[in-house]
Specification:
This protein has 253 residues and is an alpha/beta fold. It is built from six helices and 13 strands. Bound molecules: NADP nicotinamide-adenine-dinucleotide phosphate.
């Protein structure tokens, strides 16, 4: 499939890119700073990719300032890895719909792993969701998968989480992030796109366990953590799962 991934410089986003490429998808990663993009393991194959300060490819990097990718996508400022022809990096401001419309134009699915840095005041999630949705409507793209968080909802939780821990977190250190998550969810639900909202608990690093629990429109009891790698794997597994369109999918170990 042709996938456009936002937040590819982040933990989950990098895992998404790597797993998607390994699975044979064509990936367009939209980033604000390509220097922060880790070279996916899937690309560090024969011929190698070295990446001091950015991307390099066996055949050399196509010149910044605009190029046509193998699929014919022509985006000013885009870099590509021509030897593979399946990985395109687009430098753009995700908050500007006009700047990202071309990047989502031919996507079978758009995935966002964007998120705020820290727990302070933020509108990153809501603003980026609004911009991505506007760009998708403009481009005629329809499938959207976004990451939210289990903190926003109580359905499925036991009494300790529902009545003590989560309300306390929402009142204190997670209040700004939670408000932004809820705002983004509102945008996505109102988008009239074929959306799926994935709600993980606390994210951890490390390798994919390969097994995880999911639930539709309800959190998972004792679902305290999930690795970013398993979250990414779950998102890719949901790409063409019609049963999750218009639904919230909880995931946890
Ligand atoms: N951390 C947790 O325990 C937890 C729990 C539940 C849900 N979540 C959610 O899970 C998602 C993925 O989390 P993560 O920890 O993998 O993400 P992360 O590593 O923090 O990465 C965040 C991504 O968002 C991008 N970003 C942030 N602000 C931006 C802006 N103003 N403009 C453009 N891009 C911006 C970053 O780009 P740069 O590299 O350019 O900054 C990066 O690619 C997030 O939505 C997060 O809210 C996290």
């Amino acid at each position: 499939m042709k996938l456009t991934i936002f937040g590819a410089t982040g933990g989950t986003g990098a895992s998404l890119v790597g797993q998607a490429l390994a699975a044979g998808h064509q990936v367009t990663a939209v980033v604000r700073d390509p220097a922060r993009l880790a070279v996916p393991a899937a690309l560090a194959a024969p011929g190698g990719l070295a990446a001091p300060g950015g991307l390099a490819a066996p055949g050399g990097l196509a010149a910044p300032g605009g190029l046509a990718a193998p699929g014919g996508l022509d985006i000013p400022g885009a870099l590509t890895v021509p030897a593979r022809g399946q990985f395109l990096v687009v430098t753009a401001d995700v908050m500007q719909p006009a700047a990202i419309t071309a990047a989502v134009a031919s996507a079978d699915a758009v995935l966002s792993a964007l998120g705020p840095h820290g727990t302070g005041r933020t509108t990153v999630l809501r603003d980026s969701a609004r911009a991505i949705i506007e760009a998708m409507h403009e481009a005629g793209a329809s499938r959207l998968l976004t990451i939210s968080g289990s903190i926003v909802a109580d359905e499925g939780e036991g009494p300790f989480m529902r009545y003590l821990l989560k309300p306390a977190a929402r009142r204190t250190f997670l209040r700004h992030v939670c408000a932004d998550l809820r705002g983004a969810e509102d945008e996505v639900r109102a988008s009239q796109l074929d959306w799926t909202i994935i709600r993980p608990p606390r994210l951890t690093g490390g390798a994919a366990a390969g097994t995880y629990r999911t639930a539709i429109d309800s959190n998972l009891p004792r679902g305290l953590t999930i690795s970013r790698a398993d979250l990414a794997a779950c998102m890719l597994a949901l790409l063409d799962d019609a049963d999750t369109i218009g639904r919230h999918v909880a995931i946890a170990r």
